[in-house]
Amino acid sequence: MRIILKIIAAPFVLALILIVAVLTFLSCVAGAVCIVACVGLSLLAILCLLAGQTVGCIAMFVLAFLVYPLGSRPWAAGWWSACME
């Protein structure tokens, strides 16, 4: 009986393994894209600062912070958990 259940469950296990692999790859690609966008926005903010546009500089730095995958998510999670208390 156990062998029959293992044979029935094998395709589902294989499908789940493949889904996890694909989603892990997509997560890495999305993180890389976010880091590239963060660097681009930061450089744009520095150029705005050198041009004398402080409002644009602040806006670009805020956008760069929100795009950065390691900066905005923990901050947002902490803020959300503090609001839920």
Largest sheet report: none
Count of individual beta strands: 0
Distance between the termini: 49 Å
The overall pLDDT, averaged over residues, is 83
Taken from the alpha-carbon principal axes, the silhouette is: elongated
Strand content: under 5%
Show unreliable segments.
Answer: none
Number of helices: 3
Question: Rg from C-alpha positions?
Answer: 22 Å
Succession of helices and strands: HHH
Proportion of residues in helical segments: over 70%
Structural class: mainly alpha
Describe what this molecule looks like in 3D.
This protein is mainly alpha-helical and 85 residues long. It has three helices and no strands. It has helices at residues 2-51, 54-67, 69-84. Helix 1 runs antiparallel to helix 2. The termini are far apart. The model has no long low-confidence stretch (mean pLDDT 83).
Summarize the structure.
Helix content is 94%, strand content 0%. By secondary structure, it is mainly α.
Main attributes of the structure:
single chain; about 80 residues; mainly alpha; about 0% strand
Topology:
Blueprint: H1 2-51, H2 54-67, H3 69-84
